[in-house]
Amino acid sequence: MWAPGEDVAKLTYFGLYALQHRGQESAGISVSNGRQILVFKDMGLVSQVFDENTLEAIDGHIAVGHCRYSTTGASTWTNAQPTFRPTADGSIALGHNGNLTNTADLVDMVAALPSEEGELDIHSVNLEASTNDTSLVTALLAHHPDESLEDRALEVLPQVKGAFCFVFMNEGTLYAARDPEGIRPLVLGRLERGWVVASEGAALATVGASVVREVEPGELIVIDEGGLRSHKFAEPQRKGCVFEYVYLARPDAVIAGRSVHEARVEMGRVLAREFPIEADVVIPVPESGIPAATGYALESGVPYAQGFVKNAYVGRTFIQPSQTLRQLGIRLKLNALEHVIRGKRVVVVDDSIVRGNTQRAQVRMLREAGAAEVHVRISSPPVKWPCFYGIDFATRAELIANGLDAEEIAASVGADSLGYISLDGMVEATGQPKSSLCTACFTGDYPIPLPDESLLGKHLLEASLAPLAHGESLPVFNNP
Fold first, then answer.
1. What is the DSSP string of 318-352?
2. Are the CB atoms for 271 and 262 separated by under 8 Å?
């Protein structure tokens, strides 16, 4: 956010509140008053990390906020964002949504940065004990002794591969960049006295900003006292994540001109046409199953009802960083409404099946509530491939759809039947051409080339960069 005269720390706080669904492990805000950047971050939800006193202490006119969902590097304080690094003429703070695929190359690039006597030791200062790809990009951007940060960004960004939406700042300027494929969403908004960039329009609406447009794939935006200017650092090759429409984005989001809520309702209609069943009631798994269940009920004529009660104060089980927490959180999150379920043939609509544990618990709850039949309908195809672009899916071995077909999965979770929407049906519901979507988690067709398997994974940097905290040398990967 760049907004002279506004309380940018509090506005950023409320914007993060609107985006809490995108990450629930840690939160942080960096603010510049034109002379220095202050950063406050900690583990926990936005409401747990910040209070009135903290927000009043970080005063300024430029801010970057972040709520983290870890896909590279453990869920620790050292990996919380925004990252902060000193530079030759000030400092830089950066927040990142996405996941990079050439992390090993970036390690080599950071290792090659000069560190002469009398100059800032960028290796030790900038990487510290962090083990995420964001810190590598921040280190590369921070090293610009003979040029502006704007020029340095135009050099570095074309060398970064994978899914990224970067929002970063120095003492006087706000920057935003989106990868050439545009895998993750990023929108530009206008305040009466400033500009805002956020992952979804909901954050803009929350702080009173109007949506101007999406940040284009391959675009770098620069905002300072001179206004807004734009650079194209790569040719756009749009491959937006289809799972944003299925699950990740808020229902009130608009991505590539398509309402996410309308797309999800249409997915439910398609499901009803592709997998009809005689039933007494259609119920959603809250919250992400609600629009698709609405569409299924409208198309099928089967009455819609609320069959589960959700504890609003429990985070998404999908987004928790460990399998144990997912399993422990299931019963805490949902309870079945027995008077709606007992004696009924139930269609239960959910957005996806990853490992099958959540659906197994849901079906068991419905059986215990007296359901006569339980028919599961899923508004995405079988998830068979891991995501390397910003979703922490399981490994292929853990994905239930890799070893079992639909009938076998139905038996595994205890359902009477199971129907997945077709790939074409899901894509059609998004209103986007198939060629402009990433469907890798369903098809294995990755739009951004992946390196050798040994150079991938959430914890790739855990072992290799940890020695930096003890003063050891930066490792160099020998890429095949």
1. TTSSSHHHHHHHHHHHEEE-HHHHTT-EEEEEES-
2. no
| pTM listed for this prediction | 0.89
Q: Which residues pair with 38 in a beta bridge?
A: 31
Residue type, 255: I
Residues 6+ apart with CB under 8 A from 324: none
Residue 432's Cβ-side half-sphere holds a number of Cα atoms within 13 Å equal to 27
Residue type, 448: I
| Helix then strand then coil, % of the chain, to nearest 5 | 35, 25, 40
Residues 6+ apart with CB under 8 A from 96: 66, 81, 133, 134, 137, 164, 165, 166
Q: Could you count the other beta carbons within 10 Å of the beta carbon of residue 478? A: 6
Element (H, E) at 213: strand 210-214
CA dihedral 319, 322, 328, 331 (to 10 degrees): 20
Confidence of residue 451 (pLDDT cuts 50, 70, 90): confident
- Please list the residues that pair with 163 across neighbouring strands: 99
Residue 140 CA to residue 92 CA, distance in Å, equals 11
Q: What's the distance, CA 369 to chain centroid?
A: 35
Q: In what order do the strands lie in the sheet with 187-191?
A: 194-198, 187-191, 210-214
Given a cut of 60, whether residue 458 has pLDDT beyond it is yes
Q: Edge to edge, what strands does the sheet with 345-350 contain?
A: 281-284, 345-350, 373-378, 417-420
Give CA–CA dist 207/310, Å, rounded: 27
Helix axes 260-274, 290-300, angle to 10 degrees: 50
